[in-house]
Amino acid sequence: MPLYQPPSFAAAANVGRSIADDFPFATLITQQPDTPWLSHLVLLPDPHHPDCLLGHLAAANGHSAALLDSPSVAIFHGEHGYVSPRWYVTPGMVPTWNYRVAHAHGQAEAVDGDELTALLAQLAARFEGPDGWTPAAVPDTALAAMQRAIVGFRLRVTRWEVKEKLSQNRTPQDIAAVIAALQAGDGEQRQLAARMAQAQ
């Protein structure tokens, strides 16, 4: 994808969902007339509605009411990291930051009852694995009380915005050198190197 060239709607949705699936910890922003509400939370793709994301907030968090009244945007940060000019083959370069990001714009609607229970089970399964903890381990009365303390929601995504800055404007030799330098780094750097290699 050429640097700064907006992808088509379908391509943006595919890339956006991929970033959200791989990096589900998001920043959710809802603009109200008096103030923007911001929360940091896990949002997962809805298995039954491909253009939706599922999440929940504490009922005591004022954002949980605001997001049902106004459009929101969820921001997902994918692979990212510093790029040193020392890594380039070409001289005279400057430092930069490579990254992938996705913005999911949409309107949230409440999820409750059995749907909320299923949402919590999906969250647990994503991070616990098939043999891990599930909400079924909590007594029904306690689980019901916990669910009353949260607001589950489905964010219906109407638009994805994505940006992938992965050294596309550098020479093939520079890109290869950056990938090699990142591959020698930590886990996050190696993730970025792998994504850059896939983009070639």
TrEMBL record:
Domain of life: Bacteria
Gene3D superfamilies reported in the protein's UniProt record: Electron Transport, Fmn-binding Protein, Chain A
Signal peptide: none
Full protein name: FMN-binding negative transcriptional regulator
